[in-house]
Amino acid sequence: MEVNLLILIPLITSFVLLFGFKLSEKSIARLVFVSLTLQTLSYLLLLSLWAVRGFGNQVVQVVSVSITEDYSFTIEWLVDPMGLVYLGLVALLSNAVGKFSRYYLHREVGYRRFFVLIFLMIAGSNILALANTLDLFFAGWEFIGVSSFLLISFYWNRRQAVKNAFLVFCVYRICDAGFLAATMLSHSLWHEGHHFAQLSDSHLLDPVQFVNHPELYPVVLGLLLFAALGKSAQFPFLNWLPRALEGPTPSSAIFYGALSIHAGVFLLLRTQPLWISSMGFRVSLALIGLISAVLATLSGRIQSNIKSQIAYAAIAQVGLIFIELSMGWTVLPVVHLALHALLRSYQLLVSPSVVAHGLRVIQFEGEFVRASGVKDARISSAWRLWWYRLALAEFWIWPSFSLRMVWAASKRLQLVLAMMIVLASCWVGILPALAVGAMIFSLSSNQRVIRAWIFLGAGLALSWFGVLGIDPLGAKALLYFGSAGGAWLIGFISLWSFRNLELNDYYGHLNSSRLKTYLMVGVVCVIAGLPLSPAFIGEDLLLHTLFEVSPFHSVLMALTLTAGAISSGNVLVKVFFGHRGTVRA
Amino acid sequence: MAVRLTTSEGFSVQAALDHLRHYLPSQAPLKDFIHHNTLHAFQAEPFESALIDAAELYGAVCFLPIQDYRTFWAQGRMTESGILSAVQRYPKLSDSADELRAILRGDRDYPNPQRSGNQTLRSQWRDRLGFELDLKVRSLLFRLTANFLDQGIASWIFLDSDKKSFFECVQEISAVKLPPLPPLSDSWIQRWMQSGPEQVILKVLERFVAEERHFEHYLQETLLAHPGWSGMVSVVESQPEGLSHGRSISLIEFTAVKLLIEYGLVVRHLGHDFEPLSVSELEQKNSQKIAPQLDPVLLLAQRTLEESYYERTIKTVLTHQPRANRTSIWTQAIFCIDDRECSIRRHLESLDSGIETFGAAGFFGVDAMVQRQGELKPFKSCPLPVQPQHLIRYQDEPGKIGATRTEDLDWMKSIHGSSSKDVLTGLSSLPSLGLKSFLRLVFDVFSPVAHAEAYGLNRLIPSGKLELLHRGQRTPDGKLQIGYTIEEMATRVANLLRQIGLTAHFAPLVHVIGHGSSSTNNPYFSAYDCGACSGKPGITNARAFAEMANMPEVRKLLKVQYQISIPENTFFVSALHDTCRDTVDYLIDDSLLAAEKIDSAFEKFRGILDAALIQNAVERCQKFELAPDPLEPSSAHRHVMDRSRSIFEPRPELNHATNAACVVGRRILTSGTSLERRSFLQSYDFAQDPDGRILNAILTAIVPVCGGINLEYYFSRIDPEIYGAGTKISHNVVGLLGVFNGSEGDLLTGLPTQMTEMHDPIRLVFIIEQSRGVVEKVIASNAAVAEWFQGGWLELVVIEPTPQKNAYRWVEGRFELWK
Fold first, then answer.
1. Which of A154, A353, A386, A390 to probe by mutation at the B interface, max B CB count within 10 Å?
2. Considering only CA atoms, which of B55, B48, B62, B66 is closest in space to residue B23?
3. B416 and A354: CB-CB below 8 Å?
4. pLDDT bucket at B366, cuts 50 / 70 / 90
5. B402/B394 Cα distance (integer angstroms)
6. For B26-44, what is each residue's pLDDT tens digit?
7. Which residues of chain B make contact with A363, given a CB cutoff of 8 A?
8. Strand partners, B509
């Protein structure tokens, strides 16, 4: 019960606020306060019950819905020390940020929206901390992702905020595809054994388990790592984090100083029994952590703005946590995570005070941050310039990994693409291959809205037709394609009046069409298969079943769905967000 | 249009940039936030045409959204009689009156004011390249500039930025072959850079814009694409001493680097052979001679808002009956003219009619640079235009650094310093910092206590002595004289006393009360302090004035030379009013008071002032939506204290919001009237100034200060995005210089919405108690002051000190009877 409360309270609050158009600021604040207090009490109750029941790992099964004979969606919670620490962080920080924002955002346009999203994030983080299965964990992960995207674009009239929000959306989506694939594979590998609580029982991890598909083991691990890297902004994804600090300062503090940035770490902690025996995984983990720590430190040193500096500092410490994880430790990373989250969120919250403090120190001591320059580093001048340049350019990892590559690919690599499609169609059939093609076409920015949306619809339809013929799948696929198709149709209607806009600019139509904007946000959530929509389970079910029949086909499907999500997000952002000609964006 | 669009003769880069510099924001680094007229570049023009030109140039709006005017109407801040007097004052707007009434009542819709685009040349890049050129240039340009100017955020600064100029540094950095820093590392750009910034600009302009007469226009669009950074470069170039760590940067270098990056990007996309930009659209625009007009309906709405206020205020002053029999004055208090001191004076007087208050610009005539014990550089503590020749130092005992305890200072150092951010030192300090963050987070958010003051301003309540008397010393660079001679002191004391009309009838106790404001987690802290002290708390000035006036030698000279005789038993006491916390710190030894045998009077005053402060807090709380409800005196005071020390409070106080008037006259003119905390109050006795000399001195000092404050609020409120700094909530501090939104962007100038949202954009009305003739004479003789009134930047009303109390309004260069 107390476990469910921790999930339900923030979720319900979020929904009440979402539909509470008429609520005054005062009532919103009151609701927030009551909800946060109840949530804290539930946490304390959970903590004491856990102690009374004798500590250790306790599993609470809530419900298991059999969707088909061989697939059931299980809601099952795991209460263990690691999760409790994370829950404690969530409770503390959400209370602090809740109180902070009550005043800080006073009279701000979007006050209600801010708390809707914060509570969505709290719900997501609590799910993350308590989930006993990868499916559930993914649900929490996605809650964090959606609220993160919408909070970065909190000032949705500002072009740069919207651009960066979309960038984060893309990074998340691409990495989520890895997560999704890992979930799907793990369903196949361990029909029962994908529960975190059981993972620690070593007999389940007997290599015998992989007898069916031994070659898939490293793939699952690789995908999990990929997912963790994206969410925790590690190499090669490290440059999105400073760019995510576009929203209100308190939301940046709780997301990128604390909860969101450590979600990847938490994923690795939860799945540690899976990868601990793979030396290759551990070495890559350590290497990535090391590279991220070094690069982020160097990039951070030349940042002249306080928030980016803190963001890079956070990446560097998370890099160290990755190294600790690779050593097979668990307690140290958890402690490191908790302390680090507290420090960074606090630093971000008080970041404006750096002016008063820094200027005073300069006045009395001459220098604030010892601006040593590389000149004091006692390396030859060519070297110091070289390092400085690297840091200044943030190592150019950023542009090379930005989505411009995807755009460029869709324009320039059409031949390669065509060949891939032919190849793919020989392997699995023409329809899924065409679906990928259509989705990639819908990503191009040199077209009108309507064309992109039709390509998107075509991609969805083609992939549906592609699985129609496959026997056990027909009805199961309907759950996803039915909801996505419906969403697409709603999107089509909403977009009709904007059909002729070119997708190479931001139009900011949310000012004139508020309702359509909200509808489109919903549409994107469904097409992207985000939790709370039937498409979330539908997507999981679809990929899982498909994998049993044809693994390669399921990979194509995952690719199609990811591209579709990004494409729908792109249309949303371009048409409704941003504003043409905002000078000081 | 004030901006020259073409040049008839040969084009000079320096001349063009010097001309454009004029139109860039002149906001200094955050260290010295000083209010100034946002449209200072247009101040020589009449207000209305300046509005149009500026809107055109910056792409701003001239009026508020319709909804705001409707709200004013509904709340009675705009009235029918306001419309009538606006129409009377501006007859050409009379046609719009009926339409405006219908709109205000909600019977008719009307379009909101629109921004006009300000780019005709650069906007072509979008179509040619398929992307916004500016957005691509910014990222590298801002990063280079910010890192070069950085005063203490980055731990790796631009190489040799303290020795070399900006252009040289960029050249040095881009000279390295690998790793690429496109487009600056392209080899042909390297060659171009050899020829120096001026040549670079010319070369790029020749390729971009074929015709020389449009060069300046392209530069204008280039610089105004990010007015914040361009303005900062220009300010640093002209006042390099404004930075703690000096940097050599010029607008030419900045423009050259920007154009190089731009050119490099264009070449990368279009190759070296591309057509220059088309100037036909620009020429068409220039040939259209019809000047844009202000929307008459919105203009009338704006005028009505102003007239409604002027009318109410003038009426209040005219009909006000001063209390007849005053008890004898036992103490006098001189406050700053600041609009925030308006209410505390009223409360003081109402609590005890034996207290008389005065208002004077808060530097109290002490034009000084100040250097406190331990400080490496002196700072200016007098109005911006004044160039002080004197330095006041604090002697011996240093006092605490502010009210801050060392452990708080250490904590802030560890939070903001670089060690917590580097990977290894960050790791080793994490255990202690993480745990402390936990505690601080809990305390600072759930129970803001005094230690949060660590984030606040340089609040020095010094116990050290002022080095006030000149002993033949000068500063090592010879520029400043340390301390004042007796003659200099006497002049300053006499001038101030004459200005406020306090030349006789001294009470035994005279308080000189400066003001400052404490706030937490607030990059704009300096904007909350005393404007007459260049954005510093007026603490040293108040102390210096009181000590000067207490010196027997000074008093002797005052008597002999200036015919001001201060009785021997009169004692001057200085204090600092914290306008945010509503507390007063007295800067005086208790032993001294006892020696002067006035400690009982002092205690009495102190008690009354404390009561007045609480009343003041209650009054202020009525404007805070989040103030406690019900409002008790004690809870109100606790609330304002909490505002000053909460890290989550973006509005520590409302500062100058709602300021709208400045009364120059005897206190009797306004004492007892509320004036709603909207008025600057300068004491002035017309009778002692028959030739207007004193008035001239007063206006010279306060018109730019009050006008600057008023107009900065005015414009930041009218267009919070272009003239103001938008919302504080997503601000990010860069280089200790300024703020921008989110992860990167243009520096934001002007005021954030949290400061201006309560403000009604009303041009300040000066209400002067003097005969028309004297005022006319002053205006005629003082061009700098006249400009503000002639152009309609400020309004002027004179109340003649005759029994009828006739009011006259300055209209088109002459006085007209008020109604």
1. A353
2. B55
3. yes
4. very high
5. 14
6. 998 988 888 999 999 999 9
7. 244, 375-377, 379, 458
8. B331, B571
